[in-house]
């Protein structure tokens, strides 16, 4: 149990209510931030200390802070959802806490007590409760992150000081104007992660190194990049910053396959939830391996009927078209698939409190 109390400094100049309502009516994604933020400091001697809820704003960093040079950083992402009765919940926050600590181990950073992590989310949502949208499908995106603040350019050791923060951003529908399948590019030039690397850690460096691959996808007229394994460049791993799901068959014969967590994939909480939900909806689910050749042949034979990416932000993102240097194919008829949408509806229903939560995934905050 963490015994840290949060020192709360209300923002003396919050965004005026009318302006906030305007933002919440059309928040977009990741563009607007709430009135407060959480900061908790760590150093080797004092451990975690100095927990605060304070006005949102710039932070001062020494130019020699280790994160600016060696990218010792990690982050998490989850949402707060308004329920029909006005209360506010998050979804499986202890999964995010546990994943953050696995990322911390890989990045040689300190672990944060899971209760303190969840308390930090709760403290911020309490301070910014008016920022949790009531519009259907909208949410307050929570972004916990941690980075090295030790002033030291020595490269032989991890930092001794860290700052953990949580900021929050109201978010609208990921797809305004309906869910449209995306086109994806099979990147042969770039890889996201290799065995022994940081692929399963949620760290900013994985994103920094993926922008060139994403730009290559866009240059080929595609929305997102499909990451293949680093050795043979044929085994499918992820799409953009989402896990991938393949639907075989249809109707009562449908089943789900997702690439197994080999150490180079990010273990998504949406992925995990789909693997648990699907069988209860009559769709058996398994983790396995799929190559680009099997993907193409499966779609062409009709065996693979739907493919989608899944993650907290979009929930599901159907894949409608795949392009590579020497191959190209289409999946479905330009509309999201039936199994994809059924899984999406079920998960959203649990998150927004319109369906029962037999799994105990919903965590009440207010
Ligand atoms: C965060 C992330 C995901 C999705 O994880 P969720 O917990 O489902 O949001 C998938 N892939 C990558 C690379 C990610 O960073």
UniProtKB/TrEMBL annotation:
It comes from the Bacteria. Keywords: Amino-acid biosynthesis, Aminotransferase, Branched-chain amino acid biosynthesis, Pyridoxal phosphate, Transferase. It is an enzyme of class 2 (transferase). Pathway: Amino-acid biosynthesis; L-isoleucine biosynthesis; L-isoleucine from 2-oxobutanoate: step 4/4; Amino-acid biosynthesis; L-valine biosynthesis; L-valine from pyruvate: step 4/4; Amino-acid biosynthesis; L-leucine biosynthesis; L-leucine from 3-methyl-2-oxobutanoate: step 4/4. InterPro entries: Aminotrans_IV, Aminotransferase-like, B_amino_transII, BCAT-like_C, BCAT-like_N, BCAT_family. The keyword Amino-acid biosynthesis applies. Its EC number is 2.6.1.42. The keyword Protein transport does not apply. It catalyses: L-isoleucine + 2-oxoglutarate = (S)-3-methyl-2-oxopentanoate + L-glutamate; L-leucine + 2-oxoglutarate = 4-methyl-2-oxopentanoate + L-glutamate; L-valine + 2-oxoglutarate = 3-methyl-2-oxobutanoate + L-glutamate. Its cofactor is pyridoxal 5'-phosphate. GO terms for molecular function: branched-chain-amino-acid transaminase activity. Belongs to the class-IV pyridoxal-phosphate-dependent aminotransferase family. This is branched-chain-amino-acid transaminase. It comes from Actinomadura parmotrematis.
């Amino acid at each position: 149990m963490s015994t840290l109390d949060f020192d709360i400094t209300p923002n003396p100049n919050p965004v005026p209510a009318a302006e906030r309502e305007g933002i919440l009516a059309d928040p977009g994604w990741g563009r607007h931030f709430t009135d407060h933020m959480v900061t908790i400091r760590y150093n080797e001697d004092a451990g975690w200390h100095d927990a605060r809820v304070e006005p949102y704003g710039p932070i001062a960093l020494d130019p020699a802070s280790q994160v600016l040079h060696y990218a010792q950083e990690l982050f998490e992402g989850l949402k707060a959802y308004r329920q029909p009765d006005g209360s506010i919940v998050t979804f499986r926050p202890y999964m995010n806490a546990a994943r953050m600590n696995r990322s911390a181990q890989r990045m040689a950073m300190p672990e944060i007590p899971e209760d303190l992590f969840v308390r930090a989310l709760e403290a911020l949502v309490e301070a910014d409760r008016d920022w949790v949208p009531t519009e259907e499908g909208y949410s307050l995106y929570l972004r916990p992150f941690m980075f090295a603040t030790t002033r030291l350019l020595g490269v032989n050791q991890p930092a001794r000081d860290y700052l953990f923060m949580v900021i929050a951003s109201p978010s609208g529908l990921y797809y305004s104007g309906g869910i449209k399948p995306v086109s994806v590019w099979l990147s042969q030039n770039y890889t996201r992660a290799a065995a022994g690397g940081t692929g399963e850690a949620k760290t900013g460096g994985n994103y920094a190194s993926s922008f060139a691959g994403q730009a290559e996808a866009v240059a080929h007229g595609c929305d997102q990049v499909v990451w293949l394994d680093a050795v043979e460049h044929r085994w499918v791993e992820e799409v953009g910053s989402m896990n991938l799901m393949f639907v075989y068959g249809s109707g009562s014969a449908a089943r789900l396959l997702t690439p197994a967590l080999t150490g180079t994939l990010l273990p998504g909480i949406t992925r995990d939830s789909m693997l648990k939900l699907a069988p209860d909806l009559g769709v058996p689910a398994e983790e396995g391996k799929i190559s680009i050749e099997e993907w193409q042949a499966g779609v062409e034979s009709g065996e693979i009927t739907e493919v989608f990416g899944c993650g907290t932000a979009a929930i599901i993102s159907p894949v409608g078209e795949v392009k590579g240097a020497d191959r190209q194919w289409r999946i479905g008829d330009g509309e999201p698939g039936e199994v994809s949408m059924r899984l999406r509806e079920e998960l959203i229903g649990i998150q927004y409190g319109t369906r029962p939560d037999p799994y105990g995934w919903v965590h009440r905050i207010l």
